[in-house]
Design goal:
Helices cover 40% and strands 25% of the residues. It is α/β, with parallel strands linked by helices. Helix 1 runs parallel beside helix 2 and helix 2 (66-76) crosses helix 3 (96-108). It starts with 8 loop residues before the first strand and ends with a helix.
């Protein structure tokens, strides 16, 4: 068997007007998995021309530290996520505090992003925030 191994996570997408909704399951563990996840998200954002992205993350794994998050931001340059609003929901509610560092690093790199512990607050921010 040749080629790259399959991702340890799965993604489901639903385009809802200007919002691309993504559901993540499986395992996202470490910087490499996180970069693969965001590359897949960015590809679908470009494909459907979404202006907002709502990610409901049900995955397990460890949120990378600051160095890993900075590697993610460097890898994402030019992928199209700088031009949209991103609401990232920790659906399991176990890592919001650690994910907030990703929000801070993302904002430092020009991303309009927020991390939430519940989907309803994320939708409110996407629907009524500045566009």
């Amino acid at each position: 068997m040749t080629g790259a191994p399959a991702n340890p996570f799965s993604l489901r997408f639903h385009a809802n007007g200007r919002v691309l909704e993504a559901t993540v399951d499986g395992r996202v563990d470490g910087t490499g998995d996180l970069i693969a996840l965001f590359m897949a998200l960015a590809a679908e954002v470009r494909r459907v021309a979404a202006t907002c992205l709502l990610v409901n993350d049900h995955s397990e794994g460890v949120v990378p530290g600051e160095d890993g998050l900075r590697q993610l931001m460097a890898a994402m340059v030019g992928q199209g996520l700088q031009d949209i609003r991103i609401a990232y929901v920790d659906a399991r509610g176990t890592a919001v505090g650690r994910m907030e560092l990703g929000e801070i690093v993302g904002r430092e790199h020009g991303y309009d992003c927020r991390v939430f512990g519940e989907e309803s607050r994320a939708r409110l921010w996407l629907d009524y925030g500045a566009h």
